[in-house]
Amino acid sequence: MILQRVLRSARPERYAGSLERLTRLTQRRQWTLPLRQSRGFSSESDAAAAENKEPPSQPSEHSASDAVAQPPSIVQRVPFRELVLPCIPLYRRPLFPGIVAPILVQDSAACEAFLAMKDGGNRFAGLFLHKSAGQGRQQGGGEAPGGITALPADGLLRGAPDPDQLFKVGVIGELLRMAPRPKGLELTYMCHHRIRATGVARREALLFLHTEPVQEEKVEQTTSIRAYSLAVVETLRELLSAGSLYKEQLELLLESVDVNNPYHLADLGACLASTADAAALQEILEEPRLEERLSKTLGLLKSELETIRVQRKISRQIEENVSNAQRKFFLNEQLKYIRKELGLEKDERESVKSKLLARLEQKQVPKQAASVIDEEMQKLSALDPASSEYNVTRNYLDWLTIIPWGVYSQDNLDIQNVRAVLDEDHYGMDDVKKRIQEFIAIGKLKGTVEGKILLLSGPPGVGKTTIGKSIARALGRKCYRFSVGGMSDVAEIKGHRRTYVGAMPGKFIQALKVAQTQNPLILIDEIDKLGRGWQGDPSSALLEALDPEQNNAFLDHYLDVPVDLSKTLFICTANVIDSIPSPLLDRMENISLPGYILEEKVAIARRHLVPQARKAAGLTARQLVIREGALRALARDYCREAGVRSLQKQIERICRKVALQIVNQDIGQMVVNSESLPELVGKPPYASELAYRRMPSGVARGLAWTPLGGAVLYVESIDTGHQGSGGAFTGGPRLHTTGQIGSVMKESSDIALSFARRFLQAKDPANRFFERAYIHMHVPEGATPKDGPSAGCTMVTSLLSLALNRPVPSDLAMTGEMTLTGRILPVGGIREKVVAAKRAGLKRVLLPQQNIRDWEELPDYIRRGLEVSFVSSYDDVYRIAFASAGAGASAGASGPADANADDARETTAVA
Ligand SMILES: Nc1ncnc2c1ncn2[C@@H]1O[C@H](COP(=O)(O)OP(=O)(O)OP(=O)(O)O)[C@@H](O)[C@H]1O
C-alpha cells in the first residue's frame, strides 16, 4: 500500500522514508521469504514472546524449489489460530498479506482503545473490508492524511462498525508503529495471513471479532500456474515501462518479488492494480484456489496496463495538439518578424496608414482637412491596433481620405448633346427639356452649372426621377439618388457625432464617396414628404447643404471638417410644392411636369415603355406587336392617372402573359390589339357608361387639381322640395352639401347660393326658385375629400342651371374662385386642369382672366384643340354657359369629341 501511495503521489520523495521501511520489511520479513507454516501460537503471550525472535532471513528450501509452490506462511510470532481481534474496517480496498499500511484513527475513543491495547501488549488486529467500500471516496472519508487506507471521515469505529457490513475474509495485521498525528493516531500495520471472521466477541469502543486463520491450499506448481506467474511478472514489467513516474519503486518491488512463490505474486499483483475496484480485490482475497487467484490478478493487471496505455495515448494526443498550436504560433511570429526584417511587411498601423495616404495621392486636400488627417494619422500610430479607439480613428480616417477632395468631372455642356440625351430617354416634356437646355446654356456661358437647385414637381409617374438621371447622363456627371420621404432624423443628412457607436456621415458625404467626384448630381427624391421629428429639423439641415450661399463649407457632424458642395448640382423631386418648407422652395427653380394627355401617353408607351418591357421579358419586336389601338385603349380605359407608371405596369403585365403564351404554345408572334386586352389585363377598371353624355339641369363640370394631377369634377344640385311638403330638409338650411367637401369649399357653396339668388333676381326677377327651393348640392366621388375655392363658379353654374332648368353644355368645363359680388378670381394648377380637360376630351374651358399667363405658358400641344374663354366676372360665364336655350341641348347632344374618354369617368380628388 505504500507503493500505492507512492504511485498516486506526484512527489514520491515524500514517501522515501516509507519506501525504505517497506524495502526493509519486505526484505527482512515477508516478501522474499518462503513462508513456513506457523507453528501456531497458543496464546497472545506466545505471540509477544515471538516478537523478540529474529525472523529467518533466508528463503526456505521450498521456495527455491521449482517443484512445489508453497502457500505463504507467517513468521512464527504471528499466531496462526483462532483469535479474538479488534476489527479495523477498511473503506477503500482490502489489504493483502505482505503489505505494510498506515491507518489513521481519528475517533478519540478508538484512539484511546488502541493506546490501551498497545500498552497491554496486544499488537494484532483484523483488517476487514467494509461493504460500503468503493462507493465513493467522500463517503469513505477520502484519503486519510498520511495513510493510504481510507477511513470514514468522522473517524474510525465510532460506536464500532456493524459486523454485517464487513466482509468475512480479511487479514491479520501486526502493529509496527503508532505515531500521533494532529487529528488522531497513525497506526502502521504489517499485514500477515488471511483470516476469516466467525462471530462477534464483544462491542466496545472497538468491535472485537472471533477470527480463524484461512488455510491456504497446497498445490503442485503446474505448468499453468507457472505460466500465470510468468504472465503476472511480465505484466508487472510492462507496467514498469509504461509508468515511468514510479519506475524506481516498481523496480524495487519487482526485485523483491519472489517469482517462484505464486501466492505471494498473486497478492502483490492485486495490490499493484491501483485502478481495480474494491469488490474485485476482495474477490481475489477470498479466492481459495491459487490458479483462479492468479488469473484474476492477471486480469486486473492487464486492465491496469490498458488504462495506463489509454491514459498515455490521451495525454500524448493532448500534448501533440497543444504543441502543434504552439508551434504554429511561434512559426507565425517568426515569419512576421522575418517579413518585417526583410521589409516585406510593415506593422499593421503602418500598412493602414500607407493605404490611407495612397488614397490622397491624386487629390487636393484643403488645408483644414489635411491638418486633421495629419493629426489623426499621428494618433493612429500611437494607438494599439487591438483597442476600440484605434478602430474609431481608423474609420474616421477612412472617411476623411475617401472624400474625392478636389476631384471634379468635366461637364459636357454641349446643348445639342443634352437635348439628344433627354430626347433619347424621354418623350415629350418639351418645356421641361427646354428649361433644362436654358439652364445648361447659362452654365456654358458661366463655365459651370453649379449653385443651382432644380425642383421637378408633378404627379407620380411623370418621369421626374428619370429625367433627373437623364440630366446627369447628359452632363456627364455622376448621379447619386436618395429619398428624403419620411426622413425625420437630421443625422441622416448631417451625420452622427463621432462619439456614437456605429456613427456614420450623412447622405451628402456618402454621395461624394459613391460618386468619387466633388461635383456629382445629387437627386433628392420626395422632398415634399420630408419628415420632422424629435431628432431635429431635417429641412434646415438640407437647407445648409443646398443653399449656394452656405454649401461651400458644408459641415457634416461626423466628418467635422468643411466640405465644398457648391459644385454639386442638386435636383429635387416633389409631388406638391406646397408642403416644401418655404426657405428651401425659395432657393429652388421649379420645373413642373403636369402629367400627360392621352396622345403623349400613347407615344411614351410606344417609344419607351413597350420596348423596355419587351426587353425585360426577353421578347423581341417580332415576337410581340402591340397595336396603337391597344395602347390607346390601355391609356384611356385602364390607366387614367396623370403619369405613366400604371400604364407601364399594364404593359409589363401584357409582356409577361405573352411570354408565357409564346413559351407554352410555341407561337412565333403575338399581336395585341384593343380586343385582346380584356383577356390579357382583365376588364377596364373604369365604368364604361357615360355618366353625362347629356348634361342634366343642375349639373356643372369643373376642373380640379389633385396631387395626382388634374381631374374633371362635377357639381350636382337638386331641389329636394318645398318646406313643409315632406322634403328631406324641411326646416333645415336651404342648402345642404355632401361629398366630403372641406371648409373652404363649404364656404364656396354658401357664396355660390347667395350670389346665384342675387344674380337670378337681376337676370330673371320672375324666377322665384331660390325663395322656395331646398337644395342638396353634391360633389361626386364622395369618398374622396375635396377642398379649395376653385369650384366656386362651377357651383354657381350648377345652381343657376337648376334654377333656370337649363343644362350646361357637355363639352364645357370651368374653374375659378367666386366672390360674393360675382368676380372670378384666379386659381392654381391651370396646367394640370387643362391637361385633365384635354385628357377627358372636352372642347371648351373657362379660365379666370387672371390666369391668362398660365395658359399662355402652356405648350402648344396641350393648348391645341381647346377653346379657352377667359372670364373676369360671372356675367362672362353666364354668357357662355347659358348662351342660348338650345346651346346646352345641342352641345349635350354632340358630347365630348372622344366619347370613350368621357369625363364622368375621370378621377376627382381635391378641388
Ligand atoms: N416622358 C417620358 N418618356 C419616357 N418614359 C417616361 C416618361 N415619363 C415617365 N416615364 C417613365 O415612367 C416611369 C416612372 O417615372 P419616374 O419614376 O421618374 O416617376 P416620378 O415622377 O419620379 O414618380 P414619383 O413621384 O412617384 O417618384 C419611368 O420608368 C419613366 O421612364
From TrEMBL:
PROSITE patterns: LON_N, LON_PROTEOLYTIC, LON_SER
Annotated active site: S790, K833
Location(s), subcellular: Mitochondrion matrix
GO molecular function: ATP binding; ATP hydrolysis activity; ATP-dependent peptidase activity; serine-type endopeptidase activity; single-stranded DNA binding
Statement: the UniProt record of this protein carries the keyword Magnesium: no
GO CC annotations, alphabetized: mitochondrial matrix
UniProt superkingdom: Eukaryota
Keywords, ordered alphabetically: ATP-binding, Hydrolase, Nucleotide-binding, Protease, Serine protease
E.C. number: 3.4.21.-
PANTHER family (alphabetical): LON PROTEASE (PTHR43718), LON PROTEASE HOMOLOG, MITOCHONDRIAL (PTHR43718:SF2)
Listed name of the protein: Lon protease homolog
